[in-house]
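Quick one: structure for this chain?
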Amino acid sequence: MTVRPKTGSKADRDALRQNMTAMGCTASDIAMEMRARFAMRPREAWRHAKGWTLQKAADRVTQASTRGPGEPVAADASLVAKWEKWPGPSARRPTLPVLLATADAYGCRVEDLLDIEDRQALPDTDLRVLAQPDTAAAVPEPAAPPVVLPTVSEPTGSELVRLAADESATWAQFTEASNVGDIALEQLLADTRALASDYLVADPIPLFVRTRVLRDRVFALLEGHQYPRQSADLYTAAGYLCGLLAWMSSDLGHLRNADTQGRTAWLCAELSGQNTLRAWVLSTRSKVAFWDGRLRDAINYARLGATCRPSGTVGVLLACQEADAWSRLGAEAEALGALARADDARVAAGEDDEIGGIFACAPARQQNYAAGVQLRVGRPSEALVSADHALALLRAQPVRAYGTEAQIHISKASAHLSTGEAEGALEALAPVLSLPPDQRLQPVTRRLGELTAAIGRSTGRAGVGLRSAIEDFCLDSAPRHLALSPAEAAS
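Got it. Here's what it folds into:
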């Protein structure tokens, strides 16, 4: 499996469009995923997001051009194909009327049909028109009488040579300028590392706000001009920040929004060209798919991430996530095999993680996954050993992630219940039930919900008390508070 596949087959494209449409994704979401998954140009991605043939797109563009103020466009399938491939070889540059009619036909903005390659190849006059607030109004009517300008002779001789040198100097001044310096880039990545680390120990809502602010700052810088290597660094920061927002959104119970953040993070990873970021984004998308019940997607994302050959510990986490999904499907051999690959990845992970925090897989986190998997495949004794090992490792760390610690205690409680020890389960859950409401994230409440089903098979006063305590805990959680907030109620 390759990291960046070429344009997929029609069946692949149709399946992706149908699946995303069924999930409530917009045409813009589908076009973005087409671009990231099949390495498409923007205009081609929008056509496939609509499910149109080249001829149908040509007909719609021609029809749309008659509704606007600009000159009519006579499109055919061959022209649409050439417009889509521009500025590549054997292509044709789409004029402003073509871009306006295409945007009208697809129901998007002209900006959505252009990427950085297009903008670099467009004439300055077109870029100036597109920058105006009302682009459609800026395209002149074809019926307007021509304006006769005085004849200006072309420069010749030494004047021509001097003019060409001035033009090159002007271009060099523009190219040399940058809206971001190396120190600013270093600070942006340092701020990203701080947010990823803080998420392990801080309340999620204030941290979500800080992450969103930093992401917007990076997006604003990307709209400016900088050296290609600086753009790559900005896309790297944007990818990690969108990945962090995806992780937080999932933990707060907003899985669809988390998936949208994940798609944008993947686009940033592709634009950055950084394989380790690609792997972390795929890990995030695997996590979102797992909690959304899309277990096969979770497995596929995890496997694709492993093919990126990333540095650091993301390979460990990807193998753990694959094992988690297999265990939920009841596939014991596949789940245990993935856990073994996680051990192998741990041995191979020699480098430190670039970002760290939530984008790192410490040994305690790995053992937490192992405990959960062993429980689902019917090995409670091994799960209890893994949970105790995970807690010992976590207590030795300078930073103790409260979410990971809570899930380890839940695994211990589940192991005790599996052997009929309700008292032991209640004792194991005591640290979890004492978490403040703002730190009661959805993975914790969901795993407690699974535990409740096991308690239903238990008898005795301890089991009844444990069920009651869990119900009260889940009613006072961060996702529930967010769902009942005034802003959410008004939307």
